[in-house]
Each structure stands twice: as C-alpha cells, then as structure tokens.
Structure prediction request, 147 residues.
Amino acid sequence: MLISPAHAQAGGDPTGGLMSLLPLVLIFVVFYFILIRPQQKKAKEHRRMLAELKRGDRIVTGGGIVATVIRVAPDSDEVIAEIAKDVRVKLVKGTIQTVIREQGEVGQKAEAQKAETRQDNEPRQKSDRAERAEEKPAEEQVAHKQG
Prediction:
C-alpha cells in the first residue's frame, strides 16, 4: 500500500484558509460602502419626506402624476390628493416619488446660499469687471482699424 503524495503532505500554512477569505471580505466591504449604505440613506430620506408630508404639498407619484395633497391621515398609509379641479384620488404614501417644494421655500434657501457665495466671490467679481472693461476698448480699437 502506497501513500499518495497529497496525503503525505501534512499541515501546511495555517493562515492559508484565512488568506483565501480576505478577498471575499474586501469585496463585501466595498459593496457595502458603494451600494448598500447609499441605498439605506436614500430610503431613510424618502421615509422622512413622507413623514413630513402635509396639506398643500405638490407631489409626483411613481407613475408621473403631479398632484396636490388635500388630506394626510396620520394613522393611515394613504393620502388624498387632487390631480385636477374636483378630481381627487387616494394614493398610497409609498408611491409618492418626490415632493415639489414651493418657490418661496426653495427661494429662501437659494438666496441664503447665493449671499454666501457672493461674499466669497466679491473681490474676484470686481477684478472680472475690470478685465471686461479693459477688453472692450481693445475690441473697439480692432473694429475701428478694420473699418
């Protein structure tokens, strides 16, 4: 009876099993940070948006219907929305894709951001204006020479 060479080699590297699992663990970590975690954040934001839903909000459903919320029942998963004058439908909150914010709400946030940006860019804008003022006479001189 001869022992085959494969059985004759005993032991081996004890870290070999752990090293073979390392690529799988790394792949899982990469998938978690690239796919799973952003999806969880997006779902959390969607749940928060639905919880903040109130009367008068304009919404877009998953099917692309734009409507105005008429009534939100706090204990129910349904919303009554008006899609046209005197045409009301009952929607499940989960089908609401986005809430269209009023121009006033969005405008206030945008104005605050613009004011911050203006303060940061003000010296640069002055120099841009000075450069443009210098460029105009040069362009006019070229036009006079050609004419």
User: Anything to note?
Assistant: Residues 47 and 94 are 9 Å apart (CA to CA). The chain has three domains: 18-52, 54-100, 102-142. The chain has a mean pLDDT of 76.
